[in-house]
Write a structure and sequence with these properties.
- The structure holds two protein chains of two kinds.
- By secondary structure, chain A is mainly α.
- Chain A has a single domain, classed as MetI-like (MetI-like fold).
- Chain A has 13 helices and no strands.
- In chain A, helix 5 packs across helix 12, helix 8 runs antiparallel to helix 11 and helix 9 runs antiparallel to helix 10.
- Chain B has a domain of about 170 residues: P-loop containing nucleotide triphosphate hydrolases (Rossmann fold).
- Chain B contains seven helices and ten strands.
- Chain B has a six-stranded mixed sheet, sandwiched between helices.
- In chain B, strand 1 and strand 2 form a beta hairpin.
- Classes of the chains: A mainly alpha, B alpha/beta.
- At the A-B interface, helix 1, helix 2, helix 9 and helix 10 of A face helix 4 of B.
- Bound molecules: adenosine-5'-triphosphate (ATP) and magnesium ion (MG).
- The site of adenosine-5'-triphosphate has 11 residues of chain B, from helix 1.
């Protein structure tokens, strides 16, 4: 590993903090969704949603107000940053001004590198996220729906989950070389566990009455899963996916920091070697934007899915 | 026994369109199955060892018969229904439908559960469609679902989700889902429990009309003695084995006289009503004299108002 300990810890920490907020958000979403389905399934009459009181709407619930309010803090930070650097309180080689960061971005963009770095990172995240989620869903179905699957697989999976992500890196590099496969595998491992954990738990707690009704109308195996069990856990699948996406970005940076010749993690690592703080800041801002963007896209999908399936 | 004397004036209290009855395609020749239960027992494990809920239950339900099951809460009515539905298996004994002993759920039976158990993410029409037999064509299925929803008075709510409708509407949708099977054996667990009194009377008449058009074998659990006497050929009175640990489950079997549709105010049923209520541990305010043979049609006989529904609370 060519990365000194301090820098490594810093970036991974920042990313995991982002992961934690996404986690809290996703759990919130799951709780909201559970509130509207759990009651109706358990109560049997299916009216819980209609009766649930909702908090009164305030000014803070308007979309425009929310967008503006969300922009306040970043703008303040930007202002403070600009003032600090303009007053030369910190030397420019330690903290370049916002404009210098924009220029660094423009320069990379002109050379055609920035687009490439972003594209490769996004591609890795998406492929790893998709692969990890699909496998996570399949394994969750086995563990969540069959006692045998639970008994056979759960202890091993719990142990594997306890392995810190970076511990896989040397093994993956030795086995899969420093190609795309090793990075995508690491990201897939990161995306697998949130999906697996949330969905397996949800499948274990489906209202048995609904499953029995399905069996009674001749549903078995795959048709039972497709018709009743999967729709019943859609809220959990969605929140698992949101956690998985945050994890995928976290593991992307870990993978690219350690061994890569392209991608946003590579920019971070390379700029550290060459002392280009402007590019480091650029990469961090880009990670924040891309992470928020993909999370927002998933949020739109979540809204649609929850409206259809709860 | 009293068949000759009963009046069979039918009070048509239900404005259910007779023409709306669902036709089973190529119907009349469809086979129908009776149900036979041979010394059924079911026990559940409890802290004090296995606890019998049902014991020594023998029952022969000829095809086309309507049997009402009444009994105190917790006596095992739902358990009995689940056994016949193949959702649970007896600790002892055999259950046959149409001569073959059942293994798991059977495509010939359909259940409407005590709770509606609708899928919350499906509209009512799609919930009803769940009951259609496998291999029903798309258009045929849609047509049939439409008919059934109309039959139970839910055509206006076809595209609503279960959480958007009342408990009674959900229960009717659940009944429609069971009927969608065109079952040979229809199992109903307090199907009209959540309905208001008027809708309940309508649904009872609807069930009888469907049965008249298509005499399926029906096993209906109810808390309502009036309902049992109005609907059934026979009434099975179960006892709670908790109170009577040595006895068998069946306390009594009563033949209900008179051809359907019956007069809800039929005086000859008063005696049976008193008997059933006594069996359920409810004693009527007027001292009923079970020892003294009373002529049922005698005008001096004190008659309970037949229109009020007598609920057994427990
Ligand atoms: N899966 C089970 N495990 C343990 N005990 C059970 C189970 N199912 C039912 N029982 C017990 O069997 C008894 C009968 O239950 P059941 O639901 O059949 O009653 P019921 O006659 O339908 O009552 P109600 O009229 O209130 O619906 C109850 O005492 C219940 O506790
Ligand atoms: Mg019951």
């Amino acid at each position: 590993m060519s990365v000194p300990g301090s820098g490594d810890a810093l970036v991974v920490d920042a990313a995991s903090a982002a992961g934690r907020t996404a986690e809290a958000e996703a759990l919130d979403a799951a709780r909201r969704a559970d509130g509207s389905t759990g009651g109706s399934a358990g109560g049997g009459t299916g009216r819980a949603g209609a009766d649930a009181p909702s908090a009164p709407r305030t000014v803070w619930d308007r979309t425009g107000v929310r967008l503006a309010a969300g922009a306040v803090l970043p703008l303040l930070i930007l202002l403070a940053w600009q003032l600090t650097t303009a007053a030369e309180l910190v030397p420019a080689y330690r903290l370049p001004g916002p404009w210098a960061v924009v220029q660094a971005g423009a320069e990379l963009l002109e050379r055609g590198e920035l687009g490439l770095h972003i594209a490769i990172s996004v591609q890795r995240v998406l492929i790893g996220f998709a692969a990890g989620s699909v496998v996570g869903l399949a394994v969750a179905a086995v563990v969540g729906l069959s006692r045998a699957g639970d008994a056979l697989l759960n202890p091993t999976l719990a142990a594997l989950r306890a392995v810190p992500s970076l511990a896989w890196v040397p093994l993956l590099i030795l086995w899969l070389q420093i190609g795309e496969e090793s990075k995508i595998t690491l990201i897939a491992i990161g995306a697998f566990f949130p999906v697996f954990t949330t969905v397996a738990a949800a499948l274990r707690h489906i209202d048995p009455h609904l499953v029995e009704a399905g069996r009674c109308f001749g549903l078995r195996g795959w048709s039972l899963f497709r018709t009743i069990q999967l729709p019943a856990v859609v809220p959990s699948v969605v929140s698992g996916l949101r956690l998985a996406l945050a994890q995928a970005w976290l593991f992307l940076v870990a993978a690219e920091l350690i061994a890569s010749s392209m991608g946003l993690g590579f920019i971070l690592n390379d700029s550290q070697q060459t002392g280009r703080v402007d590019r480091i800041l650029l990469a961090i801002v880009l990670l924040a934007l891309l992470g928020s963007l993909t999370n927002a896209l998933l949020g739109i999908a979540e809204k649609k899915l929850l409206r259809r399936w709860t | 026994m009293m068949r000759g004397m009963t009046s069979t004036v039918h009070v048509d209290s239900a404005p259910v369109a007779r023409s709306g009855l669902p036709e089973r395609h190529g119907s009349s020749s469809t086979p129908r199955s009776g149900v036979r239960l041979e010394s059924i027992a079911r026990s559940f494990p409890s802290a004090q060892g296995a606890r019998d809920v049902l014991r020594g239950l023998d029952l022969d339900l000829p095809s086309g018969e309507i049997l009402a099951v009444v009994g105190p809460s917790g006596c095992g009515k739902s358990t009995l229904l689940r056994l016949v539905a193949g959702l649970d298996s007896p600790t002892e004994g055999l259950i046959r439908i149409g001569g073959t002993s059942i293994r798991g759920t059977d495509p010939r039976t359909a259940v409407a559960f005590q709770e509606p158990r609708l899928l919350p993410w499906r509209t009512l029409e799609h919930n009803v469609a769940l009951g259609l037999p496998r291999g029903t064509g798309r258009r045929e299925g849609r047509e049939r679902v439409r008919e059934l929803l109309q039959l139970v008075g839910l055509e206006h709510a076809a595209t609503q989700r279960p959480r958007e409708v009342s408990g009674g509407m959900a229960q009717r949708a659940s009944l429609a889902r069971a009927l969608a099977r065109s079952p040979e054996v229809l199992l109903l667990d307090e199907p009209f429990g959540a309905l208001d009194a008027l809708t309940r009377l309508r649904m009872q008449d609807l069930l009888l009309e469907i049965h008249a058009a298509e005499p399926t074998t029906v096993l209906v659990v109810t808390h309502d003695v009036e309902e049992a006497l109005y609907l059934a050929d026979r009434v099975l009175l179960l006892r709670s084995l908790l109170e009577d640990p040595a006895a068998d489950s069946i306390a009594r079997t009563l033949e209900v006289p008179g051809a359907r549709p019956r007069d809800r105010a039929d005086r000859s049923l008063a005696e049976l009503r008193v008997e059933l209520l006594a069996g359920l541990g409810v004693h009527s305010p007027q001292p009923a004299q079970p020892a003294q043979p009373v002529q049922p049609a005698q005008p001096a006989q004190p008659i309970q108002p037949a229109q009020t529904t007598t609920e057994i609370s427990s």
